[in-house]
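Pinned message: reference record for Rhodopsin domain-containing protein
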Amino acid sequence: MPLPSPAPLTGNRFATVTKTDHGAPIFIAATLGLVFSFLVLFVRITVIKWHRWGLDDLVLVCAKTIGLGQWICIFISYHNGLGKAISIVDPGDLPHMAKAFFASRILLVIALCLAKCSLLLSIRTIFTVDLKKQWLTSNITIAIVCAWGAASALAISVNCSPNYVVSGPQNVQCPNHISRLRAIFILEALLESTIVVLPVIFLIGSNMAWSRKLLVAVIFSLRLPTVAFIIVYLVTSTRFISNDSTGVGIADTAVWQQVLLGYSLMSVTIPMLKQFVTDFTTGGMGFSKTPTDTHNGSSQNTKPQSSTAVELSVFSKKSSATVPLPSRATEPAKLLRRSRSASHVSEDVAPDFSSVVSHSSRQRMIQ
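Predicted structure (tokens):
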């Protein structure tokens, strides 16, 4: 039995989709991406990392600011007819619509670049404490991402006219338009995949439990949907250009552009979830690959402890001392001098030092 035909539209509606107007999905996608992206940033700054901000947070704020510029360009372009058939748009609005959308693509790749840099800075902070190879690898990856961002911003704009949205991609100047887009976003997909794999590589050979390693892999794999969104955005963009479409045909590209940017900016915060960072990090924000350094705490407030030494606390009627006792036998005189320099020890502890060893009149505690 065939389904009944939909009822005719009545009254005022927020937005409608018709054969000549596909602008509503663009507006909704841009609004949701803007709102949720800044909500996540607010939670990150005020809850997750309150008073523990770092360079990664600063770079992420810059990425959100550039992203805000992209959303503003989309709203301007939408106001001037983005997603509508050229025949129903005021001819005076067409140049403004085309230029705003063209600018949004440039801001898109810059914001994506900064989002990657922010995540890489977080990875460098978490995984590379006192590990030079991992530190160097992170820095090299950051440099590659920055180079990709600068080259992409130029490749997507140099010698290209913004009027392809209005006049059709084949009727304006933009040499090798599809090849440029493929080079930009295929490289981006590879960079995103590298960022996901990087923490797993850093954990190889560490003494962390396999369950914890699996948790790290799962947390950072939540970045993988970005790769899927990149592929979909690239497919819709190349399809729009190949079909020589105008007006309505760009709606899918604009929608997936908002999805890609919004998720990319929001997913940067996922590895910084407070419980995950608290459970995983050691030594401030990192992990130790040495068997003897398995304690948790801040690297700024803890000093390396030797695995061959214990602390000896000596209590007497008049004084107490904490004495570092090496694993090998140490002469009483040397041990006494060390105890005097480390704590308050009275003069009359020296004659009775032998009684400490013999457990006669002193109590000792090995901490």
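Pinned by admin. Summary line: Residues 281-367 have pLDDT under 50 and may be disordered.
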